[in-house]
Amino acid sequence: MIDSQYFFVRPQDVYADHLVLRDDESQHCVKVLRKAPGDRFYAIDGLGHEFTVALEHSDKTSAHCRILSTASKPRELGFEITLVQALIKKDHFDLVVEKVTELGVHRIIPVKTRRSLPEAGHTKIERWHKIALTAMKQSRRSLMPEITPVSDLNSVLRRYADRPVQKIFLHESSEQPLDPNGINFAKACDTIIVVGPEGGFTDEEAARAAEYGFQSFSLGLRRLRAETASICGVGLFSMFAHP
């Protein structure tokens, strides 16, 4: 019987027929969950590989496992969702990272906007990576979402202007609801979703997004918090556009 527990293995610790869990992952496996030689479970490398493994032996800092089988991106969407999220309150951004990782987002781009909070430092970005790692394991994903350094909104809009992706700009003032029947959900194409801060986007930012080919949509009649809008937007595309 295979335990449903998932562990993270660094890509450099994966070899032809075995892999090595190290440090916290090894401790959690052997000391906390008390895995014994012969026990079977899963390991993921964050690059899209899921390994079914059997524990062979362990020491104080590592757990050595034999690879029984390998699967490639077994629970990934098959297309990329990129979330461009304006900087918001610390715990709210943490929640966004956790939940959109669970929903299958491929990339998170934090951005500065006219009404966003001060720029996040490196320590915050490191924390977001840790949150994403935990969410990846919890949701049984095999691909770790990319979290980029903080950019400014205009540069990101310009960067994606000519790319062949579905461009969604969530703006509460838009009169066009984000309707699954009106958007090409079924085709499962790469999509970028832009979400503003607590104070929303300015009219100038919305106009600039339109110039770069982004379609403006609302998420209904109610005014949502920024983190709710992000989770809802990514969730719609994740669920309705799943191949």
Quick structural gist:
The chain has 243 residues and is an alpha/beta fold.
Describe this protein's structure.
With 243 residues, the protein is of the alpha/beta class. The protein has 2 domains: 2-72, Hypothetical PUA domain-like, domain 1 (Ribosomal Protein L25, Chain P, Beta Barrel); 81-240, SPOUT methyltransferase, trefoil knot domain (Alpha/beta knot, 3-Layer(aba) Sandwich), CATH 3.40.1280. Helix content is 30%, strand content 28%. It has helices at residues 23-32, 90-103, 122-138, 153-160, 203-211, 226-240, and strands at 2-8, 18-22, 40-44, 49-58, 62-72, 81-86, 107-112, 146-147, 151-152, 166-170, 191-195, 215-217. Strands 6, 7, 8, 9, 10, 11 and 12 form a 7-stranded parallel sheet that branches. The longest helix has 17 residues, at 122-138. The relative contact order is 0.15.
Task: Describe the structure using short key phrases.
243 residues, Alpha/beta knot, seven-stranded parallel β-sheet, 6 helices, alpha/beta, 2 domains, 12 strands, elongated, Ribosomal Protein L25, Chain P
Can you lay out the helices and strands and say which pair or pack?
Layout: E1 2-8, E2 18-22, H1 23-32, E3 40-44, E4 49-58, E5 62-72, E6 81-86, H2 90-103, E7 107-112, H3 122-138, E8 146-147, E9 151-152, H4 153-160, E10 166-170, E11 191-195, H5 203-211, E12 215-217, H6 226-240
Helix pairs in contact: 2-3, 2-6
